[in-house]
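cron nightly-structures :: item 1 of 1
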Amino acid sequence: MNGIDLFVDTNILIDLSEGKHQVSNYLDRNSIHISIITEIELLGWPRISTAHKEFFSKLIEECHVMELSSTIKNLTIELKQKHKIKLSDAVIAASALYLDIPLLTRDVAFEKIKSLNLLIIE
């Protein structure tokens, strides 16, 4: 992939699986980074269909998956304490901050974190 580096929230990849074309415009030709949390959220649906599992598995292979390092863990703790956000959102935000790349999301709750470079799709 070429283009720019983007950190992508789980909701964006779900939108992509549902064929929402405005999402694919942001992802095409860009280098996509996701959190290990996103991989777990996507593949951990209790009633995930075989088609969705295959789609997400192939999509994840195309992404750079960010593991939970000590630095990201500590930043997650800071964000969770300071902004009172969900654990999954804190991990995703911490990962994007660590990499210093924009976070693409539909979740306006991330606006609380002023240091994040956000791209919000409505």
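cron nightly-structures :: done
Helices lie at 10-17, 21-27, 36-43, 50-62, 70-83, 87-99.
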